[in-house]
Amino acid sequence: MSLISQCRQLREARGKSLGDLGRLLGMAAQNLSAILLGKKDSRASTLEALAAALDAQWVLVPNERLAEVRQVLEGKGSGPDRGARAALDIFLDQE
User: Fold this and answer.
1) Which segments cross the bilayer (predicted)?
2) pTM as predicted
3) Which domains does the chain have, with CATH numbers?
């Protein structure tokens, strides 16, 4: 999924209007709409400001880790912390 489509989805999920975001970014809603529709290119600094306005961050993910990151984002990547001490070890250390 592209960065622009992720921004579009997050804007909708956060319930932010184009006008609200445009005011936060200091740009016309029409220009923001063109960016989010992929009709207009934007500077990285504008996209960083857009992410911040949506309370989000850009993350560069190496392709070999993309599947893992997607699982985590979908809530399917959580599991036991294999590096954590076992409950039995903690209990025995208390004695």
Assistant:
1) none
2) 0.68
3) 3-63 (1.10.260.40)
